[in-house]
């Protein structure tokens, strides 16, 4: 392995020479004819430094320090420190004269280096023969001594130049302040070197809490000492700049904020001279004492030493610490240092709690990206995750993003890695590679030869590794723990509770430039592949432990095995590697954890390269299954068909049948049910040929589930019973429970509740026995769902919470999402819609995090249904339409059709009938294409209801007859009863109470027969509201009370609240105001509990009206009650035209009140008028205002109040 250097590629020396040359040219052009001999000497020295560059490259390790200093002298001293003016000061000329000594030493050094090069390259063989390596060694020693001498001279001269120039600029600034005294502005030179305070960073996100902590410490304490540590590019300097530019800090410290850039200062003397210059302290003997006195003379001082690691890691480490300690002892002085690394210098009482600066969150990364790039697409999150919160990487990538989309950048970064992360000339702020190399070339890294070797191995472990396990995993590496400590000190790894991790951009760079080597690489591979054996423990008493370990190490296992496949292992290794891959892929599928697509693709290529067709086909089969689980159905189908053909050509019946079975699952996902059944039958036949009983049982079970999708429940029960018996023989109790639960669901749909309950009980018993023995959270999750089917909701929630906790502890995001989804559905069943929506939001977010778009769409669909139940129609419609788009994109047409149908239902409730019909039509076409007869019948039934609302009775009757015939052919008595219920509702709208009463008697029998008592309660409710609408208040109260009681038996909270709301309205005309008020109050509390804001607001409005009636003069009560009757009509009528009549009646009553009102009653009338004019949500979702309605209708009387 090559040692690290400060250059990142072979092109960098030439780039550096170009930079040196440009800087020299800049100085040369700026000089005038009055340039002194000293400046000409400086130019000549810089050019000679350029010529020496190539020679020094021959021995990087020895000459690197000299090169760095030469670069610094040329670019920083000549370009920034030396004044570009007509003349040099006397002191500056003196220093340049001292540097002239460099020329003579330079010549001898060049000569020594040239001799060494000639000796090594040309005379090596002769030297060995003569045993005369002494000559070469002597030359090396001479060159090394020359370099050391030059370094010292360069550093001494540099420090002198820095101090002189800084003091000169301070004098210039003071002169300028005097010249512009009284002016509104102060001219400050823009190029203050080393001590110029940086402005507030224009793009700054994600550090608010840290900034608040630092500012609070600076303001609270008389003096405090804060270390900002961390890896290169983490944003330490930016944080310091943000702190010193806060208003509160400026108010306390004023002009006494001093910022010193220390990255190029190599000793405490350099820092001391730069600070002395900033303070205006003369450079004489006793500079430190004068400096401390100057600092102590100020009330409060804030000093920032930025990038102090160069000096602290130099040979002058002790001197630097003594200088920092002296600064910390100055009363009223607060000190902030920034430095690469994780260790703080000794000798200072640093404020505790300041750990190395952490990476940014994903949200903060996104904010930086949008501020710089402004472009986004669906791959932005993936791109930012790959940058791992490293601000420098995010900044550089965002600049690339100004011209490239995130998707293109993800693909490009995959190919060229960190080479993409650069902007302009490479520096620590414009090149990620340059920044990383600075850390790799630190003295501590060079002093520990195993540190880089360990780092390259750790770059294969994205999940990190516990420090305590290093020696066990890497037995061939000596002192691995000591090497890890060096990496922590250099901030090349993050250390969290003794768990080490390397940031993603650093991993990418190091793996590319310093790949891991042997024998440690083999140690790591063996240790990682050994972990995969834990997959065999899943399904045993040690299942939980195994899942936790594999989940925690998944990223490490995946990366190491993928790296192994890409190195093209030999034949002796490939079988062991394949077994480890199979175990990881099996775990990924069983736990729905991680993505193995890239791993399987690499494995298939390796098998093909070794001409091993069976292994290649198995990898392609696994790849197809992995893509299927990710809902990438078209890609999955291609891979599974290819694998099926390959196995058939090889005569492997069992594996070929497995591919066929997977294709059947794919067809079911696409709602191609008949094709799926054909594939399942073919796969079952093949499994029978090879006596694979588990494969047969799975085919039978899946066939039963497909028949359920086709609503052929009797046939489905037969298949599921057969599969259940097979699984019982095999001892697969989880599958036994799943079959029993599915049978129970079908029995419930066939209106056989007692038999369904018995099956759910069998499922529960099977799971309890297996759960105690195995402890798999999947069992607990399934048991929770079974308990919910048994309506044991409290126990179900407890069991699902328990399973969710286990899934979260082992990092199984899919399992956690499924539990949240089930918990939400149980809350919705209990009408706890606020809790239900919260859990469904959590589930949807978890599905989104793992890229499970089908799960995310299912949550959106359920969320829309819950919004619909609480009459939040607008949001429900938006969510439902989004879910439809998701399902369409995924190719799940059946789910998409269901969403279109539900959108039509919501539009009906909003009285947008034509758009509703369009949605119903689109859904019907899709259901018909998919041969989904039941959903097609339900959609036609909904269309019939809309036709009645549009006063198209002939079409309504025709479609209702079609729907009823379909339900009868499906042997669906509940569907038939719903059709009769629609006829009943139409008779009520037509006020045909006699016919409605006869229909009601038949409905009672129908709904009782299918166990749908809550639907029967709805019929009572419909009858009561129709009577209420016709002002038959006494009869209405009787029907509504019956409905309320029925809903209470069913614990149907929305029905209870709606009935009590209607009872309150019926009580007002009968002058039972207290009864009305109590019903409205109770109904409002129930509406509030279930999250129905529309119902809650309506109850509150009626309570206000009752208060106004009670407060009105006696002679206005009758007129007010007439107004209330208008409200009653408004709230109970669902038909558009009848509602218009109701509103006209209210308008007429209002006019009469206004005409007859006395002055004493005018306030009450005005209040009623204001209440009437509010946008009020009626049950249909309409919002009316009396004034606009009166303008439309014209006639105040209209057809009058009934």
TrEMBL record:
InterPro entries: nSTAND1 (IPR049052), P-loop_NTPase (IPR027417), TPR-like_helical_dom_sf (IPR011990), TPR_rpt (IPR019734). It comes from the Eukaryota. Pfam families: nSTAND1. Residues 201-341 form the Novel STAND NTPase domain. This is Novel STAND NTPase 1 domain-containing protein.
């Amino acid at each position: 392995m090559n040692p690290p250097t400060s250059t990142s590629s072979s092109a960098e020396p030439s780039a550096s020479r170009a930079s040196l040359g440009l800087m020299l040219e800049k100085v040369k052009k700026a000089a005038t004819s009055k340039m002194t001999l000293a400046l000409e000497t400086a130019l000549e020295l810089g050019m000679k430094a350029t010529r020496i560059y190539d020679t020094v490259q021959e021995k990087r390790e020895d000459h690197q320090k000299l090169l760095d200093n030469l670069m610094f002298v040329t670019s920083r001293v000549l370009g920034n420190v030396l004044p570009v003016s007509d003349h040099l000061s006397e002191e500056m000329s003196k220093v340049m004269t001292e540097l002239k000594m460099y020329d003579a030493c330079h010549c001898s050094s060049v000569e020594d280096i040239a001799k060494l090069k000639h000796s090594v390259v040309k005379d090596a063989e002769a030297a060995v023969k003569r045993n005369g390596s002494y000559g070469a060694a002597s030359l090396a020693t001479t060159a090394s001594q020359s370099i050391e001498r030059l370094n010292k001279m360069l550093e001494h001269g540099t420090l002198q130049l820095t101090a002189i120039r800084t003091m000169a600029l301070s004098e210039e600034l003071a002169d300028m302040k005097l010249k512009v005294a009284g002016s509104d502005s102060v001219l400050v030179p823009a190029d203050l070197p080393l001590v110029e305070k940086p402005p507030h960073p224009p793009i700054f996100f994600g550090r608010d809490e840290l900034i608040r902590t630092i500012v609070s410490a600076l303001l609270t304490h008389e003096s405090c000492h804060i270390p900002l540590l961390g890896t290169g590019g983490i944003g330490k300097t930016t944080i310091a700049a943000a702190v010193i530019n806060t208003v509160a800090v400026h108010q306390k410290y004023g002009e006494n904020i001093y910022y010193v850039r220390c990255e190029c200062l190599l000793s405490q003397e350099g820092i001391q001279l730069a600070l002395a210059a900033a303070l205006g302290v003369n450079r004489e003997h006793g500079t430190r004492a004068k400096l401390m006195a100057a600092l102590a003379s100020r009330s409060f001082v804030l000093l920032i030493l930025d990038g102090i690691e160069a000096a602290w890691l130099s040979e002058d480490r002790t001197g630097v610490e003594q200088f920092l300690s002296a600064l910390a002892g100055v009363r009223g002085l607060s000190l902030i240092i920034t430095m690469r690394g994780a260790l703080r210098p000794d000798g200072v009482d640093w404020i505790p709690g300041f750990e190395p600066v952490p990476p940014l969150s994903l949200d903060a990364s996104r904010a930086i990206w949008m501020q710089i790039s402004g472009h986004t697409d669906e791959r932005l999150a993936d791109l930012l995750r790959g940058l791992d919160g490293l601000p420098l990487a995010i900044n550089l990538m965002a600049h690339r993003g100004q011209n490239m989309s995130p998707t293109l950048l993800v693909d490009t970064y995959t190919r060229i890695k960190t080479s993409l992360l650069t902007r302009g000339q490479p520096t620590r702020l414009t090149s990620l590679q340059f920044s990383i190399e600075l850390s790799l070339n630190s003295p501590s890294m060079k002093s520990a030869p195993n540190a880089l070797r360990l780092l390259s191995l750790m770059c294969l472990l994205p999940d990190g590794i516990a420090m305590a396990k290093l020696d066990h995993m890497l037995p061939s590496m000596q002192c691995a723990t000591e090497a890890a400590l060096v990496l922590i000190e250099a901030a090349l790894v993050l250390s969290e509770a003794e768990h080490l991790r390397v940031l993603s951009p650093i991993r990418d760079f190091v793996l590319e430039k310093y790949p891991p080597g042997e024998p440690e690489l083999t140690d790591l591979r063996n240790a990682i592949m050994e972990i995969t054996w834990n997959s065999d423990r899943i399904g045993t008493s040690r299942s939980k432990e195994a899942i936790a370990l594999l989940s925690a190490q998944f990223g490490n296992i995946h990366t190491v095995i993928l790296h192994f496949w890409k190195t093209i292992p030999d034949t002796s290794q490939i079988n062991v590697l394949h077994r480890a891959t199979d175990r990881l892929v099996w775990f990924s599928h069983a736990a729905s954890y991680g993505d193995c697509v890239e791993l399987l693709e690499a494995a298939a290529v390796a098998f093909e390269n070794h001409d091993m067709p069976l292994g290649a086909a198995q990898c392609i089969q696994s790849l197809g299954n992995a893509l299927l689980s990710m809902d990438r159905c078209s890609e999955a189908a291609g891979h599974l068909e290819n694998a099926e053909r390959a196995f058939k050509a090889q005569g492997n019946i069992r594996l070929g049948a497995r591919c066929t079975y997977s294709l059947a699952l794919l067809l079911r996902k696409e709602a191609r049910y008949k094709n799926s059944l054909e594939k399942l039958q073919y796969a079952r036949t093949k499994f029978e040929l090879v006596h694979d009983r588990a494969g047969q049982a799975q085919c039978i079970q899946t066939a039963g589930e497909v028949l359920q999708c086709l609503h052929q429940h009797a046939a489905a029960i037969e298949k599921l019973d057969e599969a259940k018996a097979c699984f019982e023989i095999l001892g697969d109790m989880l599958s036994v429970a799943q079959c029993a639960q599915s049978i129970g669901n079908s029995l419930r749909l066939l209106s056989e509740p007692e038999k369904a309950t018995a099956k759910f009980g069998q499922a529960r018993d099977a799971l309890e026995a297996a759960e105690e023995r195995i402890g798999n959270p999947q069992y607990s999750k399934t048991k929770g769902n079974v308990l919910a089917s048994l309506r044991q909701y409290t126990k179900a929630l407890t069991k699902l919470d328990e399973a969710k906790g286990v899934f979260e502890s082992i990092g199984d995001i899919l399992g956690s999402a499924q539990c949240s989804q089930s918990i939400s559905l149980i809350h919705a069943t209990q009408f706890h819609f606020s809790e239900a929506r919260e859990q469904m939001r959590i589930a949807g977010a978890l599905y989104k995090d793992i890229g499970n778009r089908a799960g995310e769409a299912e949550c959106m669909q359920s969320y829309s249904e819950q919004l619909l139940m609480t009459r939040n129609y607008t949001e429900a419609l938006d969510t439902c339409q989004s879910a439809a788009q998701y399902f369409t994109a995924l190719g799940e047409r059946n789910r998409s059709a269901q969403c279109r149908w539900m959108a039509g239902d919501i539009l009906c409730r909003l009285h947008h009938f034509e758009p509703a019909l369009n949605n119903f039509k689109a859904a019907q076409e899709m259901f018909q294409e998919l041969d989904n007869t039941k959903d097609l019948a339900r959609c036609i039934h909904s269309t019939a209801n809309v036709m009645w609302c549009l006063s198209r009775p002939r079409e309504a009757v025709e479609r209702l007859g079609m729907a009823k015939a379909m339900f009868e052919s499906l042997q669906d008595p509940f569907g038939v009863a719903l059709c009769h219920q629609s006829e009943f509702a139409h008779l009520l709208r037509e006020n045909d109470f006699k016919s409605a009463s006869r229909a009601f008697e038949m409905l009672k029998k129908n709904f009782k027969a299918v166990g749908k008592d809550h639907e029967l309660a709805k019929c009572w409710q419909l009858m009561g509201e129709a009577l209420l609408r016709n002002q038959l208040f006494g009869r209405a109260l009787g029907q509504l009370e019956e409905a309320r009681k029925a809903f209470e038996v069913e614990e149907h909270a929305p029905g209870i609240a709606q009935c009590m709301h209607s009872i309150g309205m019926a009580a007002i005309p009968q002058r039972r105001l207290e009864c009305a008020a109590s019903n409205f109050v109770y109904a409002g509390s129930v509406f509030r509990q279930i999250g129905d804001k529309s119902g809650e607001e309506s109850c509150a409005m009626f309570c206000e009206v009752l208060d106004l009636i009670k407060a009105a003069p006696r002679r206005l009560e009758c007129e007010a009650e007439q107004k209330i009757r208008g409200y009653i009509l408004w709230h109970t009528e669902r038909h558009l035209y009848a509602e218009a009549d109701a509103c006209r009646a209210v308008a007429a009553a209002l006019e009469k009140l206004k005409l007859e009102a006395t002055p004493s009653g005018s306030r009450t009338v005005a209040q009623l008028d204001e209440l009437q004019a509010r946008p009020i949500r009626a049950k249909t979702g309409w919002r009316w205002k009396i004034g606009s309605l009166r303008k439309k209708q014209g006639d105040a009387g209209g057809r009058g109040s009934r």
